[in-house]
Design goal:
mainly beta, 292 residues, 16-stranded antiparallel beta barrel, 13% helix, single chain
C-alpha cells in the first residue's frame, strides 16, 4: 500500500506538469417530493455544483476536484491513473482519495473481442475492440475507458462515478462502435449474495443504440435504457434502474455530443420510506483549456 501511495505522488507531480483542464457545472432542482403518494414538498430549491478535472496531456491521469463548497486550494483531489501491468494485455486503473486507494482491473482478449473489467465481460464488435485496444491498452486513455462504462452497470469503485460526467461519448459520435453484449457480476450490499446479469444491446439500421437491458438469471430487470428520440447529435433516452428492490429510478435524459450538454428529469423512489423525489439536472462544460 505504501508503494502504491508513493506511485500516486510521483504520478501526480509528473503527469500534471502540463494538463487539460475541464470544468463541469451542474444545476440541480428538486421539483416535487411525495411521501405515501402525498405531495409534501414543491419548493423548487436550486443547488449548483462545480467540478474541476485536470487531465494529463496523454489522458492517462485525471485529478478530480469538487469545488462546490470550498476553493480548489483547500481540496485534496481524487487521483485516477491508468497503469500497464506486467502482462501486456492488462492494465490497472489506480484510484487514490485522501490516501485511500482502490483499483479497477482491465484485460483485453483478442480471440473473443472482449474486455474484462474486474470480473465483468464486455463483448464488442471488431472496430470498437480494436479502437479501445489502441486508445486504452496502448495509449492508456482514461476518457475512452469512461465511455465504455458510461452506463455504470457494474460494481466499480464509487469514485468512478465522478468520471462519468466527462465521458467522451465516442459510441454516439461514431455509430459503428458497438458493445454487443455483457455479463455483469454484482454483490448485494446487505448480504454476500452475488447476482449475475446478462446485458443485451439493440441498434437501429443507422447504428444508434435503441435498447439496452440488464437482466438477471432470475429474469429480474436491473437496468433498462430505451431511445425516445434522436435529432442530429442530440439523444434522448428513458432509463429505468432498480437497486435490490430498495431504490428505483425512472429517468429521462437528453445529451448533445456536439454542444457537450446534458439534461435530465430524475425520479427516485425509496421503497422503505414510500418516498419519491422528482428533480431536474442540467450539466454543461464551462471551459476547456491547457494549463501550464
Amino acid at each position: 500500500m505504501k508503494a502504491l501511495y508513493i506511485f500516486f505522488i510521483f504520478s501526480y507531480s509528473y503527469c500534471f506538469a502540463q494538463n487539460h483542464k475541464t470544468i463541469i457545472k451542474e444545476e440541480y432542482v428538486t421539483l416535487k417530493t411525495y411521501e405515501n403518494d402525498k405531495l409534501v414538498k414543491s419548493d423548487r430549491t436550486k443547488k449548483t455544483f462545480t467540478y474541476v478535472y485536470d487531465i494529463s496531456s496523454k489522458k492517462d491521469s485525471i485529478s478530480y476536484y469538487d469545488i462546490s463548497y470550498e476553493p480548489i486550494d483547500k481540496i485534496s483531489p481524487t487521483i485516477f491513473v491508468l497503469k500497464k501491468e506486467q502482462n501486456e494485455n492488462n492494465l490497472l486503473l489506480l484510484i487514490n482519495e485522501n490516501g485511500t486507494s482502490d483499483t479497477l482491473h482491465i484485460s483485453f482478449f483478442d480471440n473473443s473481442k472482449s474486455i474484462t473489467i474486474n470480473k465483468d465481460i464486455y463483448f464488442l464488435n471488431s472496430l470498437y475492440y480494436n479502437q479501445l485496444k489502441s486508445t486504452i491498452l496502448i495509449n492508456k486513455n482514461i476518457l475512452d475507458l469512461i465511455d465504455l462504462l458510461d452506463d455504470d452497470l457494474g460494481d466499480y469503485p464509487y469514485q468512478f462515478k465522478d468520471l462519468l460526467k466527462i465521458t467522451s461519448n465516442n459510441k454516439y459520435k461514431n455509430s459503428k462502435l458497438k458493445i454487443l453484449s455483457a455479463k455483469i457480476y454484482t454483490t448485494r450490499t446487505q448480504s454476500d449474495t452475488q447476482d449475475i446479469w446478462n446485458v443485451n444491446y439493440k441498434y437501429n439500421k443507422n447504428g444508434v443504440l435503441m435498447y439496452l437491458i440488464k437482466k438477471s438469471n432470475d429474469e429480474e430487470i436491473g437496468y433498462e435504457k430505451k431511445l425516445l428520440s434522436q435529432k442530429g447529435r442530440e439523444y434522448k433516452y428513458k432509463i429505468y434502474s432498480n437497486v435490490e428492490s430498495r431504490f428505483e429510478d425512472n429517468n429521462v435524459i437528453a445529451f448533445d455530443t456536439d454542444k457537450n450538454t446534458y439534461n435530465a428529469i430524475l425520479s427516485h423512489f425509496q421503497f422503505g420510506k414510500v418516498k419519491e423525489e422528482i428533480s431536474q439536472l442540467k450539466r454543461f462544460s464551462l471551459q476547456n483549456f491547457v494549463a501550464e
